[in-house]
Structures are given as C-alpha cells and as structure tokens.
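=== RUN LOG ===
request id: a7f3
mode: sequence -> structure
chains: 1
length: 270
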Amino acid sequence: MDWLTELLQRPPITWWDVLDIMIVSIVVYELLKLMRGTHAVQLAIGLTFVTGLFYVSRGLQLETVNWLIRNIVGYVVFAAIVLFQADIRRALVLFGRAPFFRYLERTESDDDTIEEIVVAVSTLAARRIGAIVVLERQIGLRHFIESGIPLDARVTYDLLVSIFQPSSPLHDGAVILQGSRVAAAACFLPLTVNPRLTRDLGSRHRAAIGVTEENDAVALVVSEETGGISLVLDGDIERDLGPEQLRARLRTLVVRRRSAASREAGYSFN
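=== RESULT ===
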C-alpha cells in the first residue's frame, strides 16, 4: 500500500498542471491526426511494441534482448526519418499553418486577378483544352517554379489561354501564379501516391493533388476529356465546378481583406 499512500500525499494540482496536461493532450491529439491514414501508423505500432519489449526484457532480466534493443534504437530513428520524410515534411507544413502564424501571411490575389483566372479556365473548359493552374498562398512554391519556364508576367485571360493551347510549347506542365503574377509555366509537379483515389483521375488531377498535399496551394484543373473544372486543396478535390462556384471558392481561399474596418469601407489588398 506504499504506492497508494505516496499517491495520496502528492501536492495539490494547480492551474499550471492543468495547462501542462492540456498542452500535452493537444500535441498528442494533433500527432495522431497527422498519422491517421499514413504509413506512420505502422511505425507507431512497431515502436510501441519495441518499447514494451524493452521494459519486459529489463523486468525479466533478458540481458541479450535488452542489449539488442538499446543498441538498435538509434539506428531505427535515422531509418524512420529517411523512410517517412514525406510524412514528416507534411506534418511540419501543417504546423507552420497554425493560426498563430497567420500574421506572417503575404498578400494574395485581388478580385480582378480572380476574374481573369475564372474566365480563362472557363474558356479552356468550354474548348476541352487540358490545363492545370496552381495558386501560391502562404507556403512558397519556388522549388516547383524553378522546374519550369520563368515568365513573371501579369495574370491575364489571354496569357493563360495562350499558354495551354496544344500548339504552344508551354502547354505541358502547370502554370504557377504568385499573387497577380504568372511566375512560371511548364512546371513539373509531383504525382500523388494516394491509393484511395479513383482510377478515372488522370495525371493532371493527380499532379494537382500531389502538389497540394505538400503545401497550402490551390490547384485548378481542366479535364480535356470531359471539360470539367476541378479545384484541389489540401489533397482534396472538388469536381465539376461552374464559373460562379469557382469564383466564390477562389475569393474565399485567395482573396484576403485588410481588417474589419477596411472590410466595412470596401477596400481590399491588391
């Protein structure tokens, strides 16, 4: 009964203890959310088994097993970093998008730019010309921009439609927009490896999903088979959007207002 007596004699719990427990609980909860549906689940199960085996071997005095576990743990950590680098990068990206980092956000596209994009995408969809347009938000896309042809031109309907014409040397690949500027065309994007996607999604849709899985960008895809317009965010795809739906979604996602007072006055960032 000594342990029970010791437990009852512990100092009272303060508000700082409650705060400490809440922070740890939130961190554990967020980690479990990030791990759900990824290979990290199997890694967590394996580490839990190894940890349990370590304490069992120490309690039962299995010296060989205990020595083996103590010597391979360090190598397992480095192996996990290499094998699960994509999941680790995704977790760090999501952490960087936490609410308390929003004051570092950059200015986004204005309404005129959104209108140019919507008209261009709708025109391409009507002509069934395949296209993929990626809009950069808070997380930079410099790595993907450098893989394409730099343009640094203002976003216009004519430019976007011209780029994706089949006769254009820039029609293969993606166009990346930074605010109201076309940063580059013919950019290469990573294809998603999500096994749960339907088989009717082509390479453009998979590239759009792949790039948005790694950052907070918004990707627009025009299917050359169906002429449908899709919007991809955080690896989730919204298909068969009309011009009005697309316009409303883009205004919500990439147009930000100055402040409550500025919103009342009707001003926006340019």
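=== NOTES ===
The chain has two domains: 2-96, 111-257.
The two ends are 70 Å apart (CA to CA).
=== END ===
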